[in-house]
Design goal:
The chain has 451 residues and is of the alpha/beta class. It has helices spanning 15-18, 32-38, 42-55, 69-84, 94-108, 118-122, 127-130, 134-138, 141-145, 147-168, 171-190, 203-208, 227-232, 260-270, 309-322, 336-349, 361-373, 377-384, 401-419, 435-440, 442-449, and strands at 7-13, 191-197, 237-239, 246-248, 254-256, 282-284, 287-289, 325-329, 352-356, 390-391, 394-395, 421-423, 428-431. A hairpin with a 2-residue loop joins strand 6 (282-284) and strand 7.
Length: 451
């Protein structure tokens, strides 16, 4: 039996890690494209609205109870139409749409001060006209203010639908077993693991807390998050952008519930526009924002001033430096608000980094090419490893990502096509066969590349 190597391996986990395992009853996999289409899906939104209203009965009824689904969709569609008139934002994704909805509502209700991003400025002219649309004339302003949280709960509900569907087909138990065995293998081989997920879904919590817990959440017995406890745990799991089981109360206490269905029911029953028992909005230097339970939009840093996210980001920054190996699974190259931690720590200590995603060789090359002018994560790292490029035994010193792309695109394409992975430097490897194959090839891959 091999000796455990007592390293800390940091996993940075994006949507591609959950994509194969989250299917909706409609037949679609849970993805950015699916979520974007759901924002104007009348049938799904109506079903969720009925569920919302069932929970918000006479005792908990609020202004949003009386808001029709068609009014919400009309509002969302108006924002999507505004995007279509701009050269650079013609096909917005759900994060861009919700970002503008948040800002428009906060602007109209005078709850925002400064902090407009480029996308806000590009669409600034939609804010004033939105004051005149039907939704603001026929509804109380308090109802309008609850639309952002209504849409976030809609996203959580869609995730829960996916989990229910996977469980009904007996696929979820297999998924949990596969994930558990993979991370158990890593722990047995190397020692400590840290998981930082950008996903809202419960797959990792469900998979890694039984039969013997492999990860820790930093919660007390009543599931309330405790910052001091969190920094003591050895194998943390952190949902950097929120989790469907989070409940943020107005007294600043946070529950991280394994029973995510109960968590959503508790949230919906307890949102109250007057008493705010469950927090629907928070205040930052830029004004109010809606990133409490689930963080979306383009101003994610607003939420990092409060726990648990503040503790998560603090530990994430620290462990990008202390970890021996960083493995990015299903992560796009454009998460700029977290990339700086990765780039600075990786280049300072030249630790090993592995990109795992489902991509074609052409997509890899196009990603690097696009990043040359506006550096994304992978091109930024390539640039900083300028004198250490080795692909398939051939080395060449270069000064920047453009030279790399010019010199190595053919060799990189050939290597990726033939093997499904390629070393971009002696410390950096990209694996393009997807998470399912990565799990299956764990022995061969880790023995060859990391030992």
């Amino acid at each position: 039996m091999a000796t455990k190597r007592h390293r800390r391996i940091l996993f940075f986990i994006g949507a591609g890690a959950s994509f194969p395992y989250l299917r909706h009853p409609s037949g679609s996999h849970f993805s950015t494209e699916f979520l974007t289409s759901c924002l104007t899906n009348l049938e799904l939104l109506t079903t969720f609205s009925d569920y919302y209203k069932e929970l918000r009965d006479e005792e908990f009824r609020d202004e949003l109870y009386e808001l029709s689904t068609k009014e919400v969709i009309t509002f969302v569609q108006l924002v999507k139409d505004a995007f279509s008139k701009h050269e650079y934002y013609r096909n917005p994704n759900f994060e861009q749409i919700i970002h503008i909805i948040d800002k428009a509502i906060l602007f109209i209700t005078r709850s925002i001060s400064t902090g407009f991003t480029n996308i806000d400025l590009a669409l600034l002219e939609i804010f004033k006209p939105l004051e005149k649309v039907e939704i603001f004339r026929i509804s109380e302003i308090n109802a309008v203010q609850l639309i952002p949280i209504f849409l976030r709960e809609y996203i959580a509900w869609l995730i829960i639908q996916c989990i229910d569907f996977e469980q009904s087909n007996n696929a979820y138990s297999k998924t949990k077993r596969t994930i558990y065995e993979f991370y158990q293998y890593i722990q047995n081989k190397y020692g400590s693991i840290s998981l930082y997920s950008l996903n809202y879904d419960p797959i990792l919590i469900d998979s890694l807390t039984a039969p013997t817990p492999l990860i820790e959440l930093g919660v007390k017995s009543d599931e309330h998050f405790n910052s001091a406890e969190f920094f003591r745990v050895g194998n943390p799991l952190c949902h950097l952008h929120g989790y469907v089981g989070n409940i943020h109360f107005d007294d600043k206490s946070i529950q991280i519930c394994r029973d995510f269905r109960r968590a959503q029911s508790t949230r919906i029953k307890s949102y109250d526009s007057s008493s705010n028992r469950v927090k629907s909005r928070s205040f930052s230097m830029k004004g109010f924002h809606y990133n409490t339970q689930l963080i979306t939009g383009l101003d994610k840093f607003d939420s990092f001033s409060e726990n648990p996210f503040s503790s998560y980001v603090h530990r994430f920054a620290r462990e990008t430096y202390s970890s021996s190996i960083i493995i990015l699974i299903g992560v796009g190259f454009e998460d700029y608000h977290l990339n700086s931690f990765l780039v600075n720590s990786i280049t300072a200590f030249e630790k090993r980094i592995i990109f795992v995603n489902k991509m074609t060789p052409d997509q890899v090359l196009n990603g690097i090419k696009l990043g040359v002018q506006s550096p994304n994560l992978i091109s930024n790292l390539i640039s900083r490893f300028g004198d250490k490029i080795t692909i398939n035994g051939k080395s060449k010193k270069y000064g920047n990502a453009q030279q790399y792309f010019d010199l190595y695109q053919n060799l990189l394409h050939k290597t990726l096509t033939e093997y499904g992975h390629a070393s971009l430097t002696n410390k950096m490897l990209i694996y393009i066969k997807g998470i399912e194959e990565f799990y299956n090839e764990r022995d061969k891959f880790f023995n060859e590349f990391l030992d």
